[in-house]
Design a protein that fits this description.
Blueprint: E1 2-15, H1 26-30, E2 46-57, E3 60-64, H2 86-92, E4 102-104, E5 117-120, E6 123-126, E7 132-136, H3 137-145, H4 149-164, E8 168-171, E9 176-178, E10 181-182
Length: about 190
């Protein structure tokens, strides 16, 4: 018995599919009718939704992949220094950041860790201050090994403040997170 709620940070429609899938074009998308209208438009363009999931299970409130975040300097111009009403949507859905028990990261890209922190008086501080934040060890290792400017910014503004606050836990890739909720490795996203 679980309840899953999607909290949308941003939705962009009308994207040429080759931006995400180099071997695909609009004709490829149009051949798959099940994609329309939820995932693609009649012209064969696709949509991109950045969202977090809130899972309520075993009397716990769990946030999965907390989006891009506001005020973050990011390489992608569509994510750079944004001001989305994500936290207003989070609260409007009935959730309080102070009562989140667990924050789960499927991987550590910019659109999966951003709301771990928010800016207060020039410092990045935990958004979910009572929550344990779980990271798979291999994901931390890969993120730490990446010396690109964007990876460094992600560490500095979204991961390091969580570790410094003592809220981070490194877990196995098949870890049981709560009764009825377990990590299942599905490698393949670069």
């Amino acid at each position: 018995a679980a309840r899953i709620t999607s909290i949308v940070e941003d939705q962009t429609d009308g994207i040429p599919p080759a931006l995400f899938f180099p071997a695909a074009d609009a004709a490829t998308v149009r051949r798959h009718g099940w994609l329309r209208p939820r995932f693609a438009d009649g012209d064969g363009n696709v949509g991109l939704r950045v969202q977090a999931f809130v899972v309520e299970v075993a009397e716990q409130v769990i946030v999965v992949d907390p989006c891009v975040g506001n005020g973050k300097v990011r390489e992608q111009p569509w994510w750079n220094e944004q001001t989305w009403p994500f936290m207003q949507r989070f609260r409007a859905a009935g959730f309080d950041p102070d009562t989140v028990d667990l924050v789960v990261h499927t991987h550590l890209h910019a659109d999966h860790v951003g709301w771990d922190t928010h800016l207060v008086d020039g410092r990045w501080v935990p958004t979910f201050p009572q929550a344990r934040h779980v990271y798979v060890g291999a994901e931390i290792d890969a993120q730490t090994a990446d010396d690109s400017a964007d990876a460094t910014r992600i560490r500095d503004d979204s991961i390091t403040p969580i570790v410094a606050a003592g809220l981070a836990d490194v877990v196995a890739p098949d870890e049981e997170l709560a009764a009825g909720l377990r990590f299942v490795p599905t490698p393949g996203h670069p």
